[in-house]
Amino acid sequence: MTTVLERPAPVSLGTAFWYWLKLGCISFGGPAGQIALMHTELVERRRWISEQRFLHALNYCMLLPGPEATQLAVYIGWLLHKTRGGILAGLLFVLPSLFILMLLSWIYLAYGKLPLVAGVLYGIKPAVVAIVLAAAWRIARRSLKNAALGAIAVAAFLAIAVFHLPFPAIVLGAAAIGLAGGRYWPGHFQIGGGHPDARASYGPAIIDDDSPTPAHARFSWGRLLAIAALGGGLGLAAWGLLAALFGAAGPLAQMAWFFSKAALLTFGGAYAVLPYVYQGGVETFHWLSGAQMMDGLALGETTPGPLIMIVAFVGFVGAWTHALFGDQLALAGVAGACVATFFTFLPSFLFILAGGPLVESTRDNIRLTAPLTAISAAVVGVIVSLALFFGQHVFYLQAPRPHWDVAAIAIGAAACVALLRFQAGTIKLLFACAAAGLVLSYLP
After folding, report:
1. According to the lineage, what is the superkingdom (predicted)?
2. Residue 273: what pLDDT?
C-alpha cells in the first residue's frame, strides 16, 4: 500500500530564518556541496520546493555571474517570502562565513608568525593546490564536451599563463567565440546537464510543479527597472560615501569599484575569478602579497559559505596593511572586509530580485547560452594556470636557497589522490593536511 503524502503547510518567515542561518553555518564543500545540502533539505525532507522548480532555479543561477549557491538560496527565499525572503536567505548564507573569515584574518595578521599557526598553514597550502586542480578536473569533465571547447580551454591557459592577458579580456574573447559558435556551430555549444534526475518526486511541495508563478515573481519591465535602479543607486551611494569620507583614490573606494567589477566576472565559480582578484589585489593595488593571497585561499577553504568570500580576506588585509584608521588595525580590517563583501554580493541580489523571470524565460535559447558555454570552457584553462601559479609558490621555495619542498609536494600529491581517487571531503582533507603540516613543522 502506497502512502500518500500531504502537501506541507506554508512555511513562516521565522522558520525560514532559522533554516537559512543553519545553512550558512554548515555549508562547507563549495557550491556542489552547498547545492546538495539545499536539495536534500528543501526538496527531499522539508518539501518547500519541488524537484522541477529547484532545477529550474538552479539552471537560471548557473547562467549568471556570481556564486550560484548563494543566488539559489536568494531565489528560493524570494519565491517563498518575496523580496524580504530573498534578502534574508542571501544575508544568512553569507554572514556566518564573513564573521568567521574576519576572525581568522585577524588571527592570521596578529599571530600568523607563531609556530602553531605557521605549521597549520604549511600543511593546508599544498592541499589548496590539490583542491584547485580537482576543481579544474571537475569543471573540465562537465564543460569540455568536444574538441572546440577543449581548444578554448587551452587558448585561455596560454593567454593568462604565457601572454599575461587580463582576465576580463579572456572572458570577453571566449564570449565572442561562443556568440559566433552559437550562430554557426550550435551543436558544439550546447549546455550540458549534470543535475539530479528531474523525474524524481518526493511528494507534494509548497512550491510544486503545478503551482502557479507567484504574483511577485511574474516579469514586468517596470519592476525590473525599479529594482535595478534602486540597487544601482544603493551601490553608487555607498561608493560616494566611501569616496567622500576616505577619498576616491583611497583603498576603500578602490575596493568598492574593483569588487563590483569582479562580481560581474565570476562565470564558472570563484576559482575562475581568483586570477582577476590576484591581479588587482596583488599587482595593481598592492593590498596584499602573493604569499598572503595563497594563505587567504587556504583560510577561505576552511570556512562555510561561498569560496568567493576570500574577497573579505583581501579587503581585511588591504585595509589593515594601509592602516586606514591609524593604530586601529582591526577596525580597519573589518571595514575593508565589509566593503569587499558588500560590493561583491550586491549584483547577485539584483540579478535575482530584478531579472529572475526574464532570464528564466530565455535560458533555453542557444544564442544566449552559447557564450556562457564558451566562457565555462575558458574557465578550465584559467583555473589550471591558477593551480600552477600557486604550486610554484608552495612547492618551490626561494629561501634560504632556491629548492623544491619535498614534504609540501608529498602532502599535495596525497591530497590530489584523496580528492580524485577516493572523493575525500574537503574539510576532512584540510584537517588531515593541517595536522601533517603541524607535525612536520616541529620535526628537526
Report:
1. Bacteria
2. 73
